[in-house]
Amino acid sequence: MEAQRITRPLIATGQQIAQPSTMIRAQQIEKKFSEDVGVFDLNFEVPTGTIFGMIGPSGCGKTTTVRLMTGLYKPDRGSLMVMNREPSKFTPRARERLGYMPQHFVLYPNLTVWENLNFVASLYGMGYFKRREPLEQALEFVELSDARNRLGSQLSGGMQRRLELACTLVHNPLLIFADEPTAGIDPVLRNKFWEHFRHLRDTGRTLFVTTQYVGEAVYCDMVAVMRAGRIVHMDTPENLRKKALGGDMIKLVVDAPHALDAAQLFQRHPAIADVRRSRSQPGLLYLYAEDASATLPLIFQMMNQHPDIKVHQADKYVPPFDDVFVKLMEQAEEEYV
Fold it and tell me: Mean pLDDT over residues 83-107, rounded?
């Protein structure tokens, strides 16, 4: 069963709850544990109905940020509003609208999948006779229906993460926090998690997701890059690419004997900021330009004027976000030195 096949809300609430246009607003938030440990000067907003990703290395402050937004920590200074409330002052009613998937498995290993899910549902006050359908929907959503009678201790790491996701969603929260949800699971299952997250967003949920897998940033609507407790970059994935690389990249493949001639031609063109030749593939060039779609026609015009240079391929190149992340970290290092 694929997540895309579910067209109704994961769990019916019976009534519509008004949601603010901005689900989370953080202004100058600081939480210090020591002089250089904690989070500092956090400023960001999370619009309702989006996936907001926070990426960064282990220990950079992602989990601390989540704990502040769920009310487990109280900021030392700054203003933090979640669903138009201070998290430390959430009412039980407000907490029922939150879903929190922690970084580590915290459910009961000696209870079955169904018993764990049933227990969590009871904590949210879901009536005994009314909770069966939501439980069934949650298990179906994470593809654990056939494993309902297996003990938590008998589940693989990936299945435990899926069970935690089901428990996070069983009460139909409007705002979902997922702290390192894909840590330690294989790439195929990782993609399935993001299918689930996109489906939840498309049904009106708001998700705040932290991850060390920087390549997952492409699945988010907005991305904050953290380093040493601070947000050093924040934008859409596409704009972060442009910021890291100084614009767009174009992949150009020409016949190898004329690669140097082509590189020298493009170096002189005002629309092209830089040209780099591949060391492993002699005819491969990477061109850096402000806008790839506007520059590609100019490239073909130039090549028509030099028919001796045969072009085999020319199109926009989207580098892996891992490469983008390295560039952003280098920029942040230079800024904070």
Answer: 91
Q: Is the pLDDT of residue 4 over 70?
A: no
Q: What is the C-alpha separation between 275 and 118, in angstroms, rounded?
A: 59
> Is residue 123 scored above 60 in pLDDT?
yes
**3-state SS, residue 294:** helix
Instruction: Provide the whole-model pTM.
Output: 0.81
What is the radius of gyration, based on Cα positions, of the chain? Answer: 24
> Span 50-69, mean pLDDT?
94
Nearest partner of 144 among 157, 168, 132, 162, judged by Cα: 162
Taking the CA atoms of residue 293, residue 294, residue 295 and residue 298 in that order, the dihedral angle to the nearest 10 degrees is 120
**Helix, strand, coil in percent for the chain, rounding step 5:** 40, 25, 35
Inform me whether the pLDDT recorded for 6 exceeds 70: no
- CA-closest candidate to residue 148, choices 131, 166, 126, 130: 166
The domain ranges of the chain are 3-235, 246-320
Query: What dotted CATH number matches 3-235?
Result: 3.40.50.300
Return the CATH fold of 246-320: Alpha-Beta Plaits (3.30.70)
Residues 6+ positions from 89 with CB-CB distance below 8 Å: 71
